Amino acid sequence: PPVFRAEALTKTYRTGEVEVQALRAVDFEATAGEFVVILGPSGSGKSTFLNIIGGLDTPSSGRACFMDQEITKLDDRGLTRYRRDHVGFVFQFYNLMPSLTARENVRLVTEIARRPMKAEEALEMVGLAQRIDHFPAQLSGGEQQRVAIARAIAKNPEVLLCDEPMGALDPATGVKVLEALMRVNEVTGATTLVITHNAAIQDLAHRVVRFGNGAILGVETNARRKAPS
Ligand code: ADP
Ligand code: ADP
Q1: In this structure, are strands 87-90 and 69-70 parallel, antiparallel, or unpaired?
Q2: Is the pLDDT of residue 58 over 80?
Q3: Which pTM was predicted?
Q4: Which residue from 9, 11, 13 has its CB within 8 A of the most atoms of ligand 1, so it is best to mutate?
């Protein structure tokens, strides 16, 4: 059964006189444990799509469901609860608290989560067992991003949404971040969607979705990496 289902999602932004059609009737489904990569040129609607299914934004029309729940019907409180309980986010910039260690940054989340894992467990999962008591300034960009991934996954969300998580990193460092995401996906079974410009990542995904001009232009299933079902 799908974890997510989006039906005919559209989003129109208005700035003064100007209207931008960010999404045009997007349909999408993801199953439990899937690792999906989202590709497409800048401005093609990838972030808008991710933000809507993550409950950070609402569509102009269409619906999005998470399990049995129609998230596009939720009010602000419902959306806040949905994000808190079910969704982990990773963005291009890590937004770690500079005055807190890696462990303390992750604990900010585990302390308020419903069914968290231990901060140490999350940090070990992303390969940072040796960096648990380091401060962000003592970590490389890739390591800081892995702390951010540990923070996103420590609450045990069903869904992990990543918007250009390698965008600020050089390719070699980006690969390590990608490997951390794949490991998290395998260990926790969280359905993982990753927006990226890095074409190398395609081979590792279960499925690749290509956006263009606010629509999904194509979906490819990776014959060499079968999604769990
Ligand atoms: P992508 O993630 O593929 O780069 P986005 O979803 O960020 O694309 O943007 C899709 C389109 O919507 C772009 O034309 C962008 O300029 C526009 N857009 C995105 N967010 C806003 C906003 N808050 N206000 C106005 N236009 C926006
Ligand atoms: P290509 O575009 O040829 O697939 P990459 O995606 O690896 O190559 O990107 C080339 C360089 O640009 C890398 O250092 C990568 O980390 C960086 N990069 C990619 N996307 C972004 C982005 N959105 N913002 C900033 N840097 C990026």
Answers
A1: unpaired
A2: yes
A3: 0.88
A4: 13
